[in-house]
Amino acid sequence: MRQGTMNSFRLIAALVAMGALALAAMATLNGCGGGGTGTGVTPPTGLRVQGTVLDEQGRAVSGIRIIVLPNNLSALSGSDGRFTIDVGSGTAPTEFKVDVSNRANEYYEVVGYAGRNIQGCSINLPAPAGNVIDIGVVTVYSQGTPPPPPHDICP
Protein backbone atom coordinates (compact mmCIF):
# COMPACT_ATOMS: atom_id res chain seq x y z
CA MET A 1 0.00 0.00 0.00
CA ARG A 2 2.84 2.38 0.82
CA GLN A 3 4.34 1.88 -2.70
CA GLY A 4 0.97 2.72 -4.33
CA THR A 5 0.60 5.91 -2.27
CA MET A 6 4.12 7.03 -3.21
CA ASN A 7 3.40 6.49 -6.90
CA SER A 8 0.17 8.51 -6.59
CA PHE A 9 2.06 11.43 -5.02
CA ARG A 10 4.65 11.32 -7.82
CA LEU A 11 1.91 11.29 -10.46
CA ILE A 12 0.14 14.26 -8.84
CA ALA A 13 3.41 16.20 -8.55
CA ALA A 14 4.20 15.54 -12.20
CA LEU A 15 0.73 16.71 -13.29
CA VAL A 16 1.01 19.89 -11.21
CA ALA A 17 4.43 20.65 -12.72
CA MET A 18 3.12 20.09 -16.27
CA GLY A 19 0.14 22.36 -15.58
CA ALA A 20 2.46 25.12 -14.32
CA LEU A 21 4.59 24.82 -17.45
CA ALA A 22 1.50 24.96 -19.67
CA LEU A 23 0.27 28.13 -17.93
CA ALA A 24 3.69 29.76 -18.29
CA ALA A 25 3.77 28.91 -22.00
CA MET A 26 0.28 30.32 -22.55
CA ALA A 27 1.18 33.54 -20.77
CA THR A 28 4.25 33.94 -22.98
CA LEU A 29 2.35 33.24 -26.21
CA ASN A 30 -0.43 35.63 -25.29
CA GLY A 31 2.01 38.44 -24.72
CA CYS A 32 1.21 39.01 -21.04
CA GLY A 33 3.25 41.94 -19.87
CA GLY A 34 4.83 42.30 -23.31
CA GLY A 35 2.31 44.62 -24.93
CA GLY A 36 0.99 41.92 -27.29
CA THR A 37 -2.52 41.60 -28.62
CA GLY A 38 -3.54 38.72 -26.39
CA THR A 39 -3.99 36.52 -29.46
CA GLY A 40 -0.44 35.22 -29.70
CA VAL A 41 -0.02 37.06 -33.03
CA THR A 42 2.10 40.20 -33.28
CA PRO A 43 0.42 42.78 -35.52
CA PRO A 44 2.43 44.00 -38.51
CA THR A 45 4.06 47.39 -38.07
CA GLY A 46 4.48 48.37 -41.71
CA LEU A 47 2.61 48.43 -44.97
CA ARG A 48 1.66 45.40 -47.02
CA VAL A 49 0.82 45.57 -50.73
CA GLN A 50 -1.43 42.82 -52.04
CA GLY A 51 -3.49 41.87 -55.07
CA THR A 52 -4.27 39.15 -57.57
CA VAL A 53 -3.03 38.35 -61.08
CA LEU A 54 -5.58 36.84 -63.46
CA ASP A 55 -5.57 36.10 -67.17
CA GLU A 56 -8.14 37.49 -69.60
CA GLN A 57 -10.45 34.54 -68.78
CA GLY A 58 -10.35 35.31 -65.04
CA ARG A 59 -8.05 32.38 -64.17
CA ALA A 60 -5.27 32.76 -61.59
CA VAL A 61 -1.75 33.18 -63.01
CA SER A 62 1.39 32.31 -61.05
CA GLY A 63 4.93 33.54 -61.57
CA ILE A 64 4.14 37.15 -62.45
CA ARG A 65 6.37 39.64 -60.61
CA ILE A 66 4.81 42.73 -59.05
CA ILE A 67 7.30 45.46 -58.06
CA VAL A 68 6.60 48.42 -55.76
CA LEU A 69 8.46 51.68 -56.25
CA PRO A 70 10.56 53.46 -55.11
CA ASN A 71 11.39 50.52 -52.81
CA ASN A 72 12.02 48.00 -55.62
CA LEU A 73 10.52 45.29 -53.41
CA SER A 74 8.72 42.55 -55.29
CA ALA A 75 6.83 39.29 -55.08
CA LEU A 76 5.72 36.60 -57.50
CA SER A 77 2.05 35.73 -57.79
CA GLY A 78 1.30 32.30 -56.32
CA SER A 79 -0.71 29.42 -57.75
CA ASP A 80 -3.90 31.22 -56.71
CA GLY A 81 -2.72 34.40 -58.47
CA ARG A 82 -2.31 36.26 -55.20
CA PHE A 83 0.75 38.19 -54.13
CA THR A 84 1.78 40.02 -50.98
CA ILE A 85 4.71 42.40 -50.61
CA ASP A 86 5.71 43.30 -47.06
CA VAL A 87 7.06 46.82 -47.27
CA GLY A 88 7.87 47.08 -43.58
CA SER A 89 8.16 50.43 -41.89
CA GLY A 90 10.47 52.06 -44.45
CA THR A 91 9.49 54.41 -47.25
CA ALA A 92 5.87 53.99 -48.28
CA PRO A 93 5.61 52.84 -51.89
CA THR A 94 3.77 55.12 -54.30
CA GLU A 95 3.73 53.11 -57.54
CA PHE A 96 3.82 49.56 -58.84
CA LYS A 97 4.74 47.87 -62.08
CA VAL A 98 4.25 44.39 -63.49
CA ASP A 99 7.00 42.17 -64.91
CA VAL A 100 5.89 39.19 -67.02
CA SER A 101 9.39 38.16 -68.11
CA ASN A 102 9.20 34.95 -66.02
CA ARG A 103 6.23 33.86 -68.18
CA ALA A 104 6.95 35.81 -71.40
CA ASN A 105 6.58 32.73 -73.60
CA GLU A 106 2.96 32.38 -72.40
CA TYR A 107 1.82 35.97 -71.79
CA TYR A 108 2.17 39.27 -73.60
CA GLU A 109 4.10 42.09 -72.01
CA VAL A 110 0.83 43.98 -72.24
CA VAL A 111 -0.83 44.06 -68.85
CA GLY A 112 -4.26 45.41 -67.96
CA TYR A 113 -5.12 47.30 -64.81
CA ALA A 114 -8.33 49.19 -64.10
CA GLY A 115 -9.37 48.79 -67.74
CA ARG A 116 -6.13 50.24 -69.13
CA ASN A 117 -3.08 48.86 -70.87
CA ILE A 118 -0.10 49.45 -68.56
CA GLN A 119 2.69 47.91 -70.65
CA GLY A 120 5.99 49.14 -69.27
CA CYS A 121 4.27 51.73 -67.07
CA SER A 122 4.43 52.32 -63.39
CA ILE A 123 1.00 53.00 -61.91
CA ASN A 124 0.06 54.94 -58.80
CA LEU A 125 -0.92 52.73 -55.89
CA PRO A 126 -4.38 53.13 -54.37
CA ALA A 127 -4.67 54.63 -50.90
CA PRO A 128 -3.96 52.24 -48.01
CA ALA A 129 -6.73 50.88 -45.81
CA GLY A 130 -5.03 50.58 -42.44
CA ASN A 131 -1.67 49.02 -43.18
CA VAL A 132 -2.78 47.30 -46.42
CA ILE A 133 -2.62 48.65 -49.95
CA ASP A 134 -4.85 46.44 -52.10
CA ILE A 135 -4.00 46.73 -55.79
CA GLY A 136 -6.94 44.53 -56.73
CA VAL A 137 -6.77 42.58 -60.00
CA VAL A 138 -3.98 42.84 -62.55
CA THR A 139 -4.73 41.12 -65.87
CA VAL A 140 -2.16 39.42 -68.09
CA TYR A 141 -3.07 38.46 -71.66
CA SER A 142 -2.29 35.03 -73.08
CA GLN A 143 -0.34 34.75 -76.31
CA GLY A 144 -2.92 34.44 -79.07
CA THR A 145 -5.47 36.66 -77.30
CA PRO A 146 -5.62 40.25 -78.52
CA PRO A 147 -4.50 42.60 -75.76
CA PRO A 148 -6.15 45.99 -75.18
CA PRO A 149 -5.45 48.57 -77.88
CA PRO A 150 -1.99 50.18 -77.80
CA HIS A 151 -3.38 53.70 -77.56
CA ASP A 152 -4.02 53.05 -73.86
CA ILE A 153 -0.32 52.48 -73.09
CA CYS A 154 0.96 54.42 -70.08
CA PRO A 155 -2.09 56.36 -68.94
Describe this structure in words.
The protein has about 160 residues and is α+β, with helices and mostly antiparallel strands. It has 2 domains: about 1-40, no CATH class; about 45-150, Immunoglobulin-like, CATH 2.60.40.10. About 20% of the residues lie in helices and about 35% in strands. It is globular.
Q: In terms of topology, how is this protein built?
A:
Elements: H1 2-29, E1 47-55, E2 65-69, E3 73-76, E4 82-88, E5 95-99, E6 107-113, E7 116-117, E8 123-124, E9 132-142
Parallel strand pairs: 1-9
Antiparallel strand pairs: 1-4, 2-3, 2-5, 5-8, 6-7, 6-9
List the keywords:
single chain; 155 residues; alpha+beta; Immunoglobulin-like; 2 domains; five-stranded mixed β-sheet; four-stranded antiparallel β-sheet; 9 strands; 34% strand; globular
